[in-house]
């Protein structure tokens, strides 16, 4: 599917692909500055429980959201044959899923250690729904498109639905990330400060990244 103007002109995907890559780098920089400079740092095990929590936004934003976005764009960004593009797409999504699972483990450990309740917020509901659907989508896609693979006619019928559900799950991940940033902003009691600006700009850039990924998929390569 491609977006077309009335004249028949098709806007190319390349500018939006480049924008997505640049925005991803900016998000990485902002998240690292936030967690390493303004927060307590990172650790899976620590007496400072905030360090354990910080692993959660690191892995969910940089691992789950950004890498899954790059995986979605792989068919437009990896200059190789179709089968290798498919493998790259598959492996990047697997890395994103592993990062997401580890990120969820970190926040569950943080809540357990401090005896906080689990799964009480909209953010947590969205996040758990997203990672569950993501895992199911990956498994279904692996067996349908990679090994042992469905018949060619079946794959052709499944491919559009695979793309639609993949984008839907990706935007669920974006929504989960945005609600998580808002939730953390409120919990920290931030107002007008450098840290508040970093969180707000991170949220805006994550949204720009999501739109850029979507346009990269919808628009033609050239």
From TrEMBL:
Membrane topology (UniProt)? Multi-pass membrane protein
List, alphabetically, the CDD domains matched.
Cyt_b561_ACYB-1_like
- InterPro entries, alphabetically? CYB561/CYBRD1-like, Cyt_b561/ferric_Rdtase_TM
- Any GO CC annotation of this UniProt entry: membrane
Documented EC number(s): 7.2.1.3
Where would one find the signal peptide in this protein?
A: none
| Class of enzymatic activity (EC top level) | translocase
Q: Which domain of life is it from?
A: Eukaryota
Record's keyword terms, sorted: Electron transport, Heme, Iron, Membrane, Metal-binding, Transmembrane, Transmembrane helix, Transport
Single Gene Ontology MF annotation: metal ion binding
Every Cytochrome b561 domain range? 19-218
Q: Name one Pfam family in it.
A: Cytochrom_B561
User: What catalytic activity is recorded?
Assistant: Fe(3+)(out) + L-ascorbate(in) = monodehydro-L-ascorbate radical(in) + Fe(2+)(out) + H(+)
The record's subcellular location field reads: Membrane
Cofactor(s) of this protein: heme b
Transmembrane regions = 12-35, 55-75, 87-108, 128-147, 159-177, 197-219
Q: What is this protein called?
A: ascorbate ferrireductase (transmembrane)
**Which species does the entry assign this protein to?**
Sesamum latifolium
Task: Write the lineage as a comma-separated list.
Answer: Eukaryota, Viridiplantae, Streptophyta, Embryophyta, Tracheophyta
